[in-house]
Amino acid sequence: MVAQVIDGKAFAAKVRAQVADKVAKLKEEHGITPGLAVVLVGEDPASQVYVRSKGKQTVEVGMNSYEHKLDAETSEQDLLALIDKLNNDPAVHGILVQLPLPKHLNEDLVINAINPAKDVDGFHISNVGLLATGQKAMVPCTPLGCLMMLRDQHGSLSGMDAVVIGRSNIVGKPMAQLLLGDSCTVTIAHSRTRNLPDVVRRADIVVAAVGRPEMVPGDWIKEGATVIDVGINRIERDGKTRLVGDVDYASAAERAGAITPVPGGVGPMTIACLLANTLTACCRANGLPEPEGLTA
Ligand code: NDP
Predict the structure, then answer these.
(1) 17 — pLDDT class (breaks 50, 70, 90)
(2) Which residues bind NADP(+) (predicted)?
């Protein structure tokens, strides 16, 4: 079997177009423009690239983008004061604090200071609890993007066997909750899992979120399974720096029914889902119906 390639770039463009369409309607019918505030502390080069890209795409879908760049030495008190201001600003519907923060700042404290209704990253403890109890939450962007791609591929996921490799708070755990919410039978695997190859071989859906280049070989994949590769790993090959996932794409594509490539799979969906979450937060804040197909 040669797998169908799930084109995350095209899918993300479709999500952005849906968001842009709904943003235009919000403006036209209600005079509301969703706003996303992104806070960056310090000068981490990768974070600067992400923040620039988020700001650009926010504006492209017709939303307001508010960027707050703070000095690396910013005190916790000053950062919390800014978050408080953004929490109380009616023009701001989504707040994202770019992680990682400099070491002197307590990430949990900062994230939990965000109004959960504006927590478009879905990392606030209230949103974690809402998701775990099957209530309306703000859902972390990367797992939300994976869920959208899986729903698009299969329609209903009900009754499917899903394995999530990785149990981080930002990817693995929320991914497992979302799959459970869609009535999959979910196994969460991690570094202490016994017989990982056999666990993966049972799965109709494999989500790999580990951070180890090409650790899942093709012979772990059940014939016809859908493989979502969240991993982004930089490796040197043939004298060049390349990005590869957590799955060995070439061998997995020979057995899978469908597979996301790296790059061009899950990656582009993350910012698209951030925009979708900002729109959702704006609709909820204004008592309007949530955008169909863009929530969990
Ligand atoms: P973390 O390092 O937080 O978590 C990695 C998980 O993998 C842990 O639960 C760990 O288990 C598990 N693990 C490590 N080694 C093994 C192993 N040999 N077998 C099975 N499980 C193992 O990573 P993240 O969840 O933050 O990210 C995972 C990957 O996804 C990274 O490559 C990251 O770059 C990428 N990523 C991509 C995004 C995107 O937009 N596409 C967004 C976010 C992340 P244990 O808990 O036991 O240590």
Answers:
(1) very high
(2) 166-168, 232
